[in-house]
């Protein structure tokens, strides 16, 4: 069970979001201020923070959370939409959603964050593959065999899975996996994607799992 | 008064007065020394010495013959080449003479003698008359010397003095010029240093305060400059505080408007989960669209207010425009894909891919333009984002195949969005042009190439 810690002083919105998230199967602890956060933080898998709060504001609380536990994803949910606020929020938080928001969008973003922080124990089905996210075990359902990847392929595929359904640019992928700046014209990434496709795709010439988005990058879509 | 003595003016007056004083001294002291004192006294002293010597030697002549007298004369002639001498014996006859130029009678009457003495007394030539021998029986011998010759020695001395005097005077004038030059060079140096210090800028792009070392006019100028800098800094701080307040106000206002909007949306969502009639479903959908539009309008209105008041944070930096555009498109792609658009992205590197722009502003421009495509050009189902390098520009091109801007689209209200684009594009020294017809719209954001 995923525990979400939600801090919101607006009662109506708080009640609605809590109900919605609970309907989606999350366990939610809703607080009206950041006073008792240290106590509830220990069990939380994700924190949703409003910015305008009585007492300590959301930015300060968020920074404090990130200082003590870097691995706890923080999502800012605020009616402050100014670019400066977003920039400040994203300097420590992992995502920033502005009000009014659609509950489906919130749910999707929570999912992405949990995946990114390896908090969800999911079985992702991608065409003929089933992937256990916790230990990144890849099973080919057609042959019932496990597919083994090399170090770089593993890192690359894991990065795709953590950003499932997102389009990732060449620069993003290369810099995340290789940790170096991407230079225009470098073929390393392309070569690794080809190897990865040879292992994962049914027909590597017509890839279905790792899509090429022309002019932008790649995507693994569920 | 104390202030006056520290001023440059006081220093300048002091230099002038000193110079005048020195020049005066330089002129008068040598003049006194050489003209009055030395020259006159020396001449008189010499004359007295000649007179005494002539008398003494005259009385020492033992044998009074023409030969001995002439020998005596010749001895003197050696010492005083310009002199002339003659002997009048006790009978009044002119017995011997040496180099006498004046017309002299051969026989001297007592009357002529008396007249001669009278004429020559204290006149030119300087004349000494002495009795020849130790008694008065041998007549008298006369020594004549032009007074110019007499003062020749002292004249030489005087000429020498004149040269010394000229050198001293010249030295004094040069000294004065030097002092003046040093004085002005000092002032100039400080003024140049001041000007350089005034041009230094701090990190906040304001001038830096200057270290005031002296309390003269330039020192006062430096103090005034420092005062100006501090006033400027205060005013800038005030301005920043006001800016902060205004931004705070707008942020709060935006927050206050969005909170009820969020509540409305929450309840609408709850309603949509209920079983509704077809009319009900449609009503919910219309309300949702209206709410989204209201949300966008609030956002644009806030940005517009900040932009027109020049209060929107602008932080240009050098960014890789292709990379930035690609990342931006990565997040927009899915949205267009969901709407069934055909998406054509072709981003080729420019010669100079680094653009000096505010990345947040650029995002905002792209967001506004793409939002417009999404809302007003849905019918074309086509979006193209590509780069183009012209002869004198590099451009980002966003094209759609909608009905064009002139055709009234359902979600009209893009005006403010495009106004924001226009303000931002111009502020970032970029240009943009729009070509719109019934077959679609092409928007070019151009960066003029710098002339090399």
TrEMBL record, chain A:
<keyword id="KW-0804">Transcription</keyword>
<dbReference type="InterPro" id="IPR011006">
    <property type="entry name" value="CheY-like_superfamily"/>
</dbReference>
<dbReference type="InterPro" id="IPR036388">
    <property type="entry name" value="WH-like_DNA-bd_sf"/>
</dbReference>
<keyword id="KW-0597">Phosphoprotein</keyword>
<feature type="domain" description="Response regulatory">
    <location>
        <begin position="3"/>
        <end position="114"/>
    </location>
</feature>
<keyword id="KW-0805">Transcription regulation</keyword>
<feature type="domain" description="OmpR/PhoB-type">
    <location>
        <begin position="121"/>
        <end position="222"/>
    </location>
</feature>
<dbReference type="InterPro" id="IPR016032">
    <property type="entry name" value="Sig_transdc_resp-reg_C-effctor"/>
</dbReference>
<dbReference type="InterPro" id="IPR001867">
    <property type="entry name" value="OmpR/PhoB-type_DNA-bd"/>
</dbReference>
<feature type="modified residue" description="4-aspartylphosphate">
    <location>
        <position position="50"/>
    </location>
</feature>
<dbReference type="InterPro" id="IPR039420">
    <property type="entry name" value="WalR-like"/>
</dbReference>
<protein>
    <submittedName>
        <fullName>Response regulator transcription factor</fullName>
    </submittedName>
</protein>
<keyword id="KW-0238">DNA-binding</keyword>
<dbReference type="Pfam" id="PF00072">
    <property type="entry name" value="Response_reg"/>
</dbReference>
<dbReference type="InterPro" id="IPR001789">
    <property type="entry name" value="Sig_transdc_resp-reg_receiver"/>
</dbReference>
<dbReference type="Pfam" id="PF00486">
    <property type="entry name" value="Trans_reg_C"/>
</dbReference>
<feature type="DNA-binding region" description="OmpR/PhoB-type">
    <location>
        <begin position="121"/>
        <end position="222"/>
    </location>
</feature>
<keyword id="KW-0902">Two-component regulatory system</keyword>
Automatic annotation (TrEMBL), chain B:
<dbReference type="InterPro" id="IPR003660">
    <property type="entry name" value="HAMP_dom"/>
</dbReference>
<feature type="transmembrane region" description="Helical">
    <location>
        <begin position="165"/>
        <end position="184"/>
    </location>
</feature>
<feature type="transmembrane region" description="Helical">
    <location>
        <begin position="12"/>
        <end position="36"/>
    </location>
</feature>
<keyword id="KW-0067">ATP-binding</keyword>
<dbReference type="InterPro" id="IPR003661">
    <property type="entry name" value="HisK_dim/P_dom"/>
</dbReference>
<keyword id="KW-0812">Transmembrane</keyword>
<dbReference type="Pfam" id="PF00512">
    <property type="entry name" value="HisKA"/>
</dbReference>
<dbReference type="InterPro" id="IPR036097">
    <property type="entry name" value="HisK_dim/P_sf"/>
</dbReference>
<dbReference type="InterPro" id="IPR050398">
    <property type="entry name" value="HssS/ArlS-like"/>
</dbReference>
<dbReference type="Pfam" id="PF02518">
    <property type="entry name" value="HATPase_c"/>
</dbReference>
<dbReference type="InterPro" id="IPR003594">
    <property type="entry name" value="HATPase_dom"/>
</dbReference>
<keyword id="KW-0597">Phosphoprotein</keyword>
<feature type="domain" description="Histidine kinase">
    <location>
        <begin position="252"/>
        <end position="451"/>
    </location>
</feature>
<keyword id="KW-0902">Two-component regulatory system</keyword>
<dbReference type="InterPro" id="IPR036890">
    <property type="entry name" value="HATPase_C_sf"/>
</dbReference>
<dbReference type="InterPro" id="IPR005467">
    <property type="entry name" value="His_kinase_dom"/>
</dbReference>
<protein>
    <recommendedName>
        <fullName>histidine kinase</fullName>
        <ecNumber>2.7.13.3</ecNumber>
    </recommendedName>
</protein>
<keyword id="KW-0547">Nucleotide-binding</keyword>
<feature type="domain" description="HAMP">
    <location>
        <begin position="185"/>
        <end position="237"/>
    </location>
</feature>
<dbReference type="Pfam" id="PF00672">
    <property type="entry name" value="HAMP"/>
</dbReference>
<keyword id="KW-1003">Cell membrane</keyword>
<keyword id="KW-0472">Membrane</keyword>
């Amino acid at each position: 069970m995923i525990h979400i810690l939600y801090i919101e002083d607006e009662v109506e919105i708080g009640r609605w979001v809590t109900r919605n998230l609970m309907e989606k199967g999350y366990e939610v602890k809703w607080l009206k201020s950041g006073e008792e956060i240290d106590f509830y933080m220990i069990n939380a898998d994700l924190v949703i923070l409003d910015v305008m709060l009585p007492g300590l504001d959301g930015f300060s609380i968020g920074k404090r959370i990130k200082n003590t536990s870097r691995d706890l994803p923080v999502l800012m949910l605020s009616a402050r939409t100014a670019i400066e606020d977003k920039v400040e929020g994203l300097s420590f938080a992992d995502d920033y959603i502005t009000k009014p928001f659609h509950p489906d969008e919130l749910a999707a973003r929570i999912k992405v964050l949990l995946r990114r922080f390896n908090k969800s124990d999911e079985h992702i089905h991608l065409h003929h593959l089933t992937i256990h996210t916790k230990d990144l075990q890849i099973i080919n359902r057609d042959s019932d065999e496990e597919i083994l990847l090399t170090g770089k392929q593993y890192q690359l595929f894991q990065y795709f899975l953590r950003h499932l359904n997102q389009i990732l640019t060449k620069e993003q992928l290369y810099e995340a996996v290789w940790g170096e700046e991407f230079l225009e014209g470098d073929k390393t990434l392309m070569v690794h994607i080809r190897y990865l496709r040879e292992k994962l795709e049914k027909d590597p010439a017509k890839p279905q799992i790792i899509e090429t988005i022309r002019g932008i990058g790649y995507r693994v879509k569920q | 008064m104390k202030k006056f003595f520290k001023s440059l003016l006081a220093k300048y007056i002091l230099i002038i007065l000193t110079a005048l004083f020195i020049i005066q001294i330089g002129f008068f002291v040598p003049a006194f020394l050489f003209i009055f004192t030395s020259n006159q006294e020396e001449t008189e002293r010499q004359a007295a010495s000649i007179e005494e010597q002539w008398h003494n030697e005259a009385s020492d002549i033992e044998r009074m013959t023409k030969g001995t007298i002439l020998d005596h004369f010749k001895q003197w002639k050696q010492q005083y080449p310009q002199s002339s001498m003659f002997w009048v014996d006790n009978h009044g006859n002119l017995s011997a003479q040496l180099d006498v130029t004046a017309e002299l009678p051969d026989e001297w009457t007592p009357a002529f003698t008396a007249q001669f003495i009278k004429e020559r007394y204290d006149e030119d030539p300087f004349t000494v008359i002495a009795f020849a021998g130790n008694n008065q029986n041998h007549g008298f011998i006369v020594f004549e010397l032009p007074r110019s010759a007499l003062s020749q020695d002292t004249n030489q001395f005087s000429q020498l003095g004149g040269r010394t005097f000229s050198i001293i005077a010249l030295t004094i004038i040069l000294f004065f010029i030097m002092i003046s030059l040093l004085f002005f060079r000092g002032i100039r140096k400080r003024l140049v240093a001041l000007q350089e210090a005034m041009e230094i800028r701090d990190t906040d792009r304001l001038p830096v305060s200057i270290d005031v070392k002296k309390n003269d006019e330039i020192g006062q100028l430096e103090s005034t400059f420092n005062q100006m800098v501090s006033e400027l800094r205060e005013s800038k701080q005030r301005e920043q505080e006001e800016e902060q307040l205004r931004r705070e106000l707008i942020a709060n206002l935006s927050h206050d408007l969005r909170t009820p909007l969020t509540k409305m949306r929450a309840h609408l969502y709850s309603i949509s989960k209920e079983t509704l009639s077809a009319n009900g479903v449609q009503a919910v959908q219309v309300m949702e669209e209206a709410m989204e539009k209201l949300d966008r309008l609030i956002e644009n209105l806030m940005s517009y207010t900040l932009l027109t008041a020049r209060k929107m944070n602008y932080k240009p930096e050098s960014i890789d425009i292709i990379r930035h555009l690609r990342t931006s498109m990565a997040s927009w792609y899915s949205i267009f894909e969901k709407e069934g658009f055909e998406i054509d992205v072709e981003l080729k590197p420019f010669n100079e891919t680094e653009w000096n722009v505010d990345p947040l502003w650029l995002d905002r421009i792209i967001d506004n333009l793409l939002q417009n495509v999404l809302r007003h050009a849905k019918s074309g189902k086509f979006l193209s984002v590509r780069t183009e390098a012209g002869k004198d520009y590099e451009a980002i091109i966003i094209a759609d195949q909608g009905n064009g801007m002139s055709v009234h689209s359902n979600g009209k209200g893009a005006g403010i969005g495009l106004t924001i684009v226009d303000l931002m594009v111009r502020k970032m020294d970029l240009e943009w042009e729009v070509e719109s017809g019934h077959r679609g719209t092409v928007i070019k954001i151009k960066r003029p190439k710098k002339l090399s």
